[in-house]
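Section 5.1 Outputs to date
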Amino acid sequence: MPKPADQAQLNASNADLWARLTDSLSHYDGEAAADSFMEAEGLIDTYLEAVAAQSTNLPDRQALALACAHLLVTMRTMTEDDLATLVRLNATSLGVSLYALAPTVAEMKQRALAGLQVMAQPHAGPARTPSVDFDSPF
């Protein structure tokens, strides 16, 4: 159980992450959504490449949290564990190892891309649209 001060920071980080995600997704049409998805994927790829190269030139952790949240929410693949990880990543006052998170971030990206593949399959049933209602996915 986090200390009360840490819990307050996590609560503020959660609210901030959802507010930024809501703001970024609220202005989308189909083309803008696709562009934003690719930008988020690109930022995650840059992060994963930097970690693999043991570079100290890593993307901003709040930008990384938003990019991961964007992929997971739009593909409806976010889990409670993902949200907890992203809220912690977004809380800059709490210590998080960006290098240790790489496998988790890579798995989040792969799950989002798998969700995209499912959406793209014509035999997968009715087309799903990206989530824009921002209801908690769990």
